[in-house]
Amino acid sequence: MKAIPYGRQNITEEDIKAVVETLKSDYLTQGPKIAEFETAFAKYVGSKYAVALANGTAALHLCAMALGLKEGEKVITTPITFAASANCIRYCGGEVVFSDIDPETYLLDINKVRSLLENAPKGTYKGIIPVDFAGRANDLEAFRALADEYDLWIIEDSCHSPGGSFSDSNKKTQNCGNGNYADLAIFSFHPVKHIASGEGGMITTNDKDLYEKLLQLRTHGIVKNDAIYKNSIELAGGLENYPGWYMEMQNLGYNYRITDFQAALGSSQLTRANEGIKKRRDIASNYFNAFKDKPFIKGQSGVIEGHAYHLYVIEVEDRLGLYNYLRSKNIYAQIHYIPCHLMPYYKQFGWKEGDFPNAETYYNHCISLPMYPTLTQAEQDYVIKEINSFYSEKH
Ligand SMILES: Cc1ncc(COP(=O)(O)O)c(C=O)c1O
Prior knowledge:
7-stranded mixed β-sheet, 37% helix, binds pyridoxal-5'-phosphate
């Protein structure tokens, strides 16, 4: 059996054609494909606005900046995520406050967040970054209600959940990143994600002011708009109108732009996003049925409505043994994640083992099984067979 990774991209002839056409066009960087990708992506998740960026980390950084996060201000997030969800707070000089996960959903436990807020003077915290870990959507309606009570903003880290959703209190489907509850949501187009653009990211929002701020910050804080220029027309060398070459850098921004050919790839991939989610859900259902009665499984992602299944996680006994055994069989399962609060960088702020028992217990047992739309039935059967044989040989 050829090597089976935990995740992989799916590049079709159509995707290649889209990229090559863009390479042959007049634009490599800021061409028309970026706006096309943004419009299509906003439509896909149901938001008013979308801003494409160089990667998901840049997206998180700009969100924290656009929301005005400052030195020393506290923001709450989950320890079970990729470091970038927390790092964006540090980029702005903010203080990361981790809070434990719910052991069933693996998501930030809203009750624990509530108790943090209740036990601190009002104004202590500025925002919350819930992560739709593995593709499972947070109940953002509940998070919004809590955030409003304490005047907090929300950045939804939806890197794992394009196409995911939760059902609100009226049983209405709310897509991840649709902007109805979170101020801003972010996505990544790294190859293991649902939609690959090489590197790439997106912010979605329904807030026009934030949207305009993000467009500026994406490109050095530069504006090209007569109506908002701050310098006098004389400095611009004009008499009645600002000349065509004139622009102003009004804020400290970055070069976080995506290229036109990456956006073309992203758009092409997006046309198959629904198909991909369907395949991921079928694979999740097969795993669930194969393992539901097995005593060595302590928990699994299960078959959950609205789950986008970026990852299929199971919690097992002897996780290290299983991991090594699967590698010896050419199956490259992965661990998501080593809790962020136990990273040496975050330990220097005082976080330590024992701080978040649910996250740490989860980490000691979790393993992400191969999950991607092109995983064949034969490959999945092989993965299931090898997991079963590992445990039957052991017991
Ligand atoms: C939950 C989460 N947040 C943020 C990121 C950062 O995205 P990128 O790798 O595109 O910078 C990732 C991607 O790895 C992620 O999984």
